[in-house]
Amino acid sequence: MKLDAALAPESIRDVPPLASAAERLGFDAVWTSETQHDPFLPLALVAEHTTHLHFGTAVAIGFARSPTVLAHTAWDLAAVSGGRFVLGLGTQVRAHIERRFGMTWPESPSGGMRELILSLRAVWKTWQTGEPLRFRGDVYRLTLMTPFFSPPPIENPAIPIYLAGVNRALCRLAGEVADGLHVHPLHSAEYLRQVVVPALREGAASARRDPAGAIVSASVFTASDPGQEDFARSQIAFYASTPSYRPVMELHGWGAAADRLSVLARRGAWAEMPAVIDEDMLTTFAVVAGEGDLAQALRTRYAGLVDRITLYLPFRPGERDGFWRSLASDLAAD
Q1: What predicted TM-score, i.e. pTM, was given to this entire model?
Q2: Which CATH architecture has domain 2-222+290-332?
């Protein structure tokens, strides 16, 4: 089981020391997200200031970009890093695509994401082999690629694509066409067993792929002290208030709590929401254990379910270096 880190720099000037420290402490990969900064710009600095650390997006918003624009960015990052880049894509939700990005929400999000992934690979194949570009779908049509706009072939053209998913349709799609799945932090071991893993396997079977071929990368809530418990409760409450994540709550019989959280969120009563997350919910969605026991607790919960773990905690070098080094070593020893 590999340990990864989430990079959340205040400025991209902070990225070189963060990346160097992550590599030195034994992390296998670092991930950037599309929140307050562009997810790709920091990764050029990660590539420059590390030698073997893998890195990628968790996630970049696919429907906010053209397939060819995404293809160029991923191609350059894969080339400059010697194949260490992973392209993680997410759909976001309709309101953000239309009102924050000013783009068109596809009629079928899973269908649109399938086409996006397949069109990316079609562009990469054209660049690598020189074959004509011929991709015709319902959402994307790509049929023009001249030598002037084609980068040269690279050493590692099979760029891994991870898809973010919560509900069955996107998890199934990840098994069908992607190389991995980014599991949302609002999950439980039971949700992975009953929904995520079976959907991945169904998707793989439908495409005649190896059911174990898709890497499962999970962002995990953890708490080793009361302050971290408070933080976990607030984040669980925030995500559980979103209708897209309701199936996770419903699986455990907590649909009424999800409804209450949605009402509070609409009122802007953010301070009241963590109190809805009782002890049972906390320990279901977060791994609560002392720092010395955390590696074993993670192994116990996730053995056979996930391949990579990213703690939903800020990575700040110099503050807890011994903890991070020990955790990475303990998880890698499995």
Answers
A1: 0.96
A2: Alpha-Beta Barrel (3.20)
